[in-house]
Write a structure and sequence with these properties.
- By secondary structure, the protein is an alpha/beta fold.
- It has 9 helices and 12 strands.
């Protein structure tokens, strides 16, 4: 049996007449009759009883009629789903993220993408930059977001956002009276650094900035994540150099001020994906990223 046989059989069964079925299918009656006979020979049974008025289903034909519409419906659904997948309208998109990235731009991208393509399921995975690169190569994610991204031959890297640096202070600290804070203003202050990973990141950038500008850096705490760092600020245990997106974390007792520094001017948010990944869902998401860049 093939799909043509099924469509021809269904037309004859519903019309109960070979002539009308042929008109409905836009073919001549003799080819239709030959196709039905071929189907009957393949199944080894008669499907229709030919009458002067047309054609009536046999018992075997009634059984086949109960199945064919479902089969054709499944075929049509498979066709439609395949076309939607090829257009990036359905499927799955796995995204690597990092902690502070979810405070600003990434939720906006996800909201825009979901509004355009609600049929695509999104999986979010919290990973550092090296875990994201490994996951990309192993095809466990399709795109990642991180900072200070190393250059890799098989990984494409773009910049979606350049954020200014901020200083997180606890309320009533004398520096809260200033609208801008220079790096020299932080010399001798208790500084909270994050993340305390050995790989190059924000903590290393802060250390280098103090060194380049000849300022004394006093590190009071080192932590893995920005939430802990800002919580320590709220507990009046020190100050923290952070990013503008983290300023969206409005913990009670924390005040943010812009940082003025020759070395720490802005920090990039990068997105990365495989060079050879032509997934329709990924390409659709990259379109959203580009739309966001053009709107900013």
């Amino acid at each position: 049996m093939n799909l043509k046989h099924m469509r021809y059989f269904l037309a004859v069964a519903q019309e109960a007449n070979f002539g009308r079925a042929a008109q409905r299918l836009h073919i001549a009656q003799p080819p239709l009759t030959r196709q039905i006979r071929a189907l009957e020979e393949e199944l080894g049974t008669d499907l229709f009883v030919r009458t002067t008025k047309g054609a009536e289903l046999t018992e075997a034909g009634e059984v086949l009629l109960a199945e064919v519409p479902n089969i054709l419906s499944l075929v049509q659904r498979a066709k439609e789903q395949t076309q939607l997948a090829s257009q990036g309208m359905i499927g799955r998109l796995d995204i690597g993220i990092f902690s502070s990235g979810v405070l600003y731009v990434i939720p906006q991208l996800l909201a825009r993408f979901h509004a355009q393509r609600p049929g695509v399921r999104i999986g979010l995975h919290n990973m550092n930059k090296y875990e994201q690169i490994e996951a990309l190569r192993e095809r466990r994610i399709s795109i990642g977001f991180t900072r200070f991204t190393p250059q890799e031959d098989d990984i494409a890297v773009g910049t979606i956002l350049q954020e200014p640096f901020m200083v997180a202070l606890y309320e009533e600290h004398p520096l809260c009276k200033q609208t801008l804070i220079k790096l020299a203003d932080l010399a001798g202050e208790s500084i909270i650094l994050y993340p305390n990973f050995p790989t190059h990141g924000l903590a290393q950038e802060v250390r280098q900035a103090f060194e380049h500008e000849g300022c004394n850096l006093t590190v009071s705490w080192e932590t893995e994540d920005f939430i802990t760092a800002i919580a320590l600020v709220a507990s009046r245990l020190g100050l923290c150099i952070t990013t503008a997106s983290v300023a969206n974390l409005n913990l009670p007792g924390v005040v943010y001020r812009p940082l003025i520094s020759k070395y720490l001017q802005y920090i990039e948010l990068n997105y990365l994906y495989r060079h050879n990944d032509n997934s329709p869902a990924l390409r659709a998401f990259l379109d959203v990223v580009q739309q966001y860049q053009h709107s900013e």
